[in-house]
Amino acid sequence: MYDFDVLVLGSGPGGQKAAIATAKLGKRAGVVERRDMVGGVCINTGTIPSKTLREAVLYLTGMSQREMYGQSYRVKDDITVSDLLVRTQHVIGREVEVTRSQLSRNHVAMLAGLGAFVDEHTIEVSDGTGRETRVTADKIVIATGTIPARPATVDFDGATIIDSDGILHLERVPQSMVVVGAGVIGIEYASMFAALGCKVTVVESRTRMLEFCDIEVVEALKYHLRDLAVTFRFGETVAAVERHTKGAIAVLESGKKIPAEVVMYSAGRQGMTDALKLENAGLNADARGRIAVDDFFRTQVPHIYAVGDVIGFPALAATSMEQGRLAAHHACGEPVNVMSKLQPIGIYTIPEISFIGKTEDELTSGRIPFEVGVSRYRELARGQIIGDSYGVLKLLVSPDDHSLLGVHVFGTGATELVHIGQAVMGCGGTVDYLVDAVFNYPTLAESYKVAALDAMNKIRQIERLAD
Ligand SMILES: Cc1cc2nc3c(=O)[nH]c(=O)nc-3n(C[C@H](O)[C@H](O)[C@H](O)COP(=O)(O)OP(=O)(O)OC[C@H]3O[C@@H](n4cnc5c(N)ncnc54)[C@H](O)[C@@H]3O)c2cc1C
Questions:
Q1: Residue/partner pairs of 436-441 with CB below 8 Å, 24 or more apart
Q2: Ligand 1 atom index nearest CA of 145
Q3: How do strand 29-33 and strand 109-112 relate by DSSP bridges?
Q4: What is the per-residue DSSP string for 110-129?
Q5: Best of 16, 36, 47 for a ligand 1 pocket test (most atoms within 8 Å of beta carbon)
Q6: Which of 8, 46, 274, 334 could serve as 329's disulfide partner, Cβ 3.0–4.6 Å?
Q7: 252-261: pLDDT as tens digits
């Protein structure tokens, strides 16, 4: 007899959903988590703080209203770190409470501390004060997430040279910042600080950024960020960062020197597996701390599952939650489907980006014919009302069977709008549905109909010429 049917390590989105799904199936569930990290990276240091910070930046700078009220429009002139953090701390607090209450309502036992394997069914929980407790479980779900990767050669001090966690501890809004790494996290923070008036330089060793996104969308984003005084240094590598009393100098391999008040490294993430003593359970992790799993999130020890960022790509809160639920259902013997490959990507830059399905480049290299239907927000009444003249929605449509191959959105509400396309694609619908559908007016959702008509007009033109 084990103490738990399913014991989960980590209370981020993956762990939380695994524990609650277990409890809903009438099984005994427990979660091991540090006292001050309930809700995981997602609530405490990652998704929630960064998205709340973005909302605070958008509101206080008045950026989204400037098309209406002029370029000098501001809600507050001197935006301080405490202006930004007050909203962030408020939301974090509320989200932690929601998580705690959901777990307790569902009778999930909370074990405070960090867990490590003693053997493949036993976990030792250390609460950080020297107290250790052993618990056993029939099935175990590892959902321990990641921490920012820190290059060994860089002397992080938490004030001048920071990683993405350090953003939440800045004492003031810097006037200049170097962002090392143009991945999603790097570019999201680069846009927020640029919107605050900070002079941002992004250094990226690759020659492109966000290469998995639609190239036109990325070009549009770069245009907007340059307009906010962001400088891009693609194909460049930071060789060293010198720390001085009033800031730092990033020295690039090319010899360029970039002075900045703050240098933020956003150089990938490392799985939190070091403290797990995986070897005691017959498991291991790769050099980046990631654990390999099968389609049902089973590790090589079949009663031990792993979900969320610790298993690597796509490393999103959205996917982690679903992985947690599926792993728990599988562990409890419920029938489960393999996770759908059709998943949206949301990037909360300013302006935001979202897409689902294929890009034009992927379709072209796969020799899959497609037609493009475009709708520009400035031609929608809602676009005019909200003052978004740059937003665009693009549908990629198969001229053969009219199926939707991809949906790409740039501009206000992109991360919400994409789900209409996802629903049509997921249910096997075609562009014909969007042509015939009536949408509320005036809305941004209407862009689907406009883009669908555009795609169909182009397809019809080819058919007419070919007759
Ligand atoms: C700045 C930033 C912005 C992001 N923005 C987005 C976004 O907009 N949308 C999105 O979908 N995703 C976003 N993400 C990614 C998202 O936060 C992660 O994908 C998600 O949090 C991963 O969930 P997880 O279940 O793997 O656990 P995590 O949230 O990573 O939490 C893991 C938890 O496990 C605990 N833990 C570690 N080791 C042990 C142990 N030995 N025993 C017990 N507990 C342990 C840790 O304390 C931690 O609380 C962002 C991430 C960052 C850093």
A1: 441/381
A2: 30
A3: parallel
A4: EEESEEEEEETTEEEEE-SS
A5: 47
A6: 334
A7: 999 999 999 9
For residue range 261-287, list pLDDT tens digits in order. Answer: 999 999 899 999 999 999 999 999 999
Give the position, in ligand 1's atom list, of the atom nearest the Cα of 321.
25
d(C-alpha 200, C-alpha 225), whole Å: 9
Helix (H) or strand (E) holding 420: helix 414-426
- Give Dmax (Cα) for the chain: 81
Question: Strand pairing partners for 305?
Answer: 141, 298
pLDDT of residue 246: 86
Separation of 410 CA from ligand 1 center, angstroms?
26
Assessment of whether the complete model's pTM goes beyond 0.90: yes
Residue closest to 53 by CA, chosen among 87, 24, 80? 87
CA of 54 to the centre of ligand 1 (A): 18
3-state secondary structure of 395: strand
Backbone φ, ψ for residue 167 (5° rounding):
-55, -35
Cα–Cα dist 253/67, whole Å: 40
Distance (angstroms) between ligand 1 centre and the Cα of 46 equals 7
> Token pair for residue 378?
């400035």
Of 58, 126, 56, which is closest to residue 92 (Cα–Cα)?
A: 56
The CA distance from 309 to 41, in Å, is 10
